[in-house]
Amino acid sequence: MADDFFERIDELIEAVGSGHLVGGVEVDQVYGHRQHEETTWKHPRGGEWGYLTKPFMENIDRYMHRLADLAVVPEGSDLRKAMIDNVEHLSDQVAIRAPIEFDNLRQSGHPTVTSDGEVVYDRAPKQERLTPEQLKTIRRQHRSLG
Amino acid sequence: MRYAILRDFLMAFLAGREWDPMPTFVPGPGTDANALDVTPDRLVMLTFGSGAGLSVEQVFDRPIVQVRAAGNQSDYDDGERLAYDLDRGMLSVDSSRDIGGVWVTGITRVGGNPQLLLIDDADRANFTCTYAMESETGYDN
Predict the structure, then answer these.
(1) Which ipTM was obtained for this model?
(2) N or C: which end of chain B has fewer CB within 10 A?
């Protein structure tokens, strides 16, 4: 009986894994930081400052519950899946809450998860970082539509 | 937690670190929208966000607050030192204590250390850092 217990605990330890499980969402645009931190700017087309920080804090209980719910499941552990769900949810929040100018920022959420330093999830952003030339072109197009 | 209480707490902390003259403090983002443009020299803007909501059977709130620090003109180090001293003041609340009559269980950063946001038109280095806190709810508390 005791042997069973210790074997199962060992299995569980292996399923859960060791080290740090780290989830992140990056928004890699040249104007991303300023748009996130400028509390004084108005966004007439929608969106707001703190488009990562605010949804992260507002959903922090949900994220922790998700991790707790999937830490131990009948098949072992789904912690990684829980963290992937969390970063995808936060990335979706960027798509809803980032300021709109040309709609590129909202498409720029880049979720990743690392487990004990190893990348276990890396979903490319729908919008890659725009080059200065691409930004100029977009501005020109919007001006001509104008 | 209210703006005025956090302002007074940070001003007392900066005074203890011999900041003279003391920076001008303003609430963000909307009540004095032009503060950044019309306030010369050092400026600190405190902008609250609703954060994670209620906790501890609705006795505590968990707001976020962005601290924006602008130093003297043409003095990058001044802005950076101001941002880090404010950071030190915020992080000094690392366990339960009373701040101006409000019980706060702790203040922590959301994300990293103070980061340069921009060098503004007045040639001041502007730094920002965002914090989460758990504090008593209510205006009077």
Answers:
(1) 0.85
(2) C
